[in-house]
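Sorry to interrupt, but I need a hand with the structure work. It will help me judge whether the discrete encoding reads sensibly. Write everything out right here, beneath this request:
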Amino acid sequence: MLDDGAPIFSQIAERLADDIAEGALAEGARVPSTNELAAFYRINPATAAKGINVLIDDGLLEKHRGVGMFVAAGARERLLEGRRQRFSERYIEPMVAEAGRLGIDADALVALIGKLGQTREGSKP
């Protein structure tokens, strides 16, 4: 369930963010409480609260006093946009820079990516 690679609160935040990105937690959906998360993962409620607070600070969750936590309006799109930006910075920009060093122009790079995509699609069962 949880691994030792990252702080537990960030793993909680990441799992909830993944659920939002995948649509499992839709806009307006109630999010498990800190006590529910603590019981499920067998962690301290303060740790679960810290994970939830990360998402509140990012504007992905909102508190409804006395009712619980809910996915904020527009949370999925904001989350996906941020992930697209990080994807571009982490993978696309370095790839384009290396292609330039190798003398591969944009059209050739797009063709290589398209060819890889076709190969992968053809190997799906």
About this structure: The chain has two domains: 8-73, 76-122. The chain has a mean pLDDT of 93.
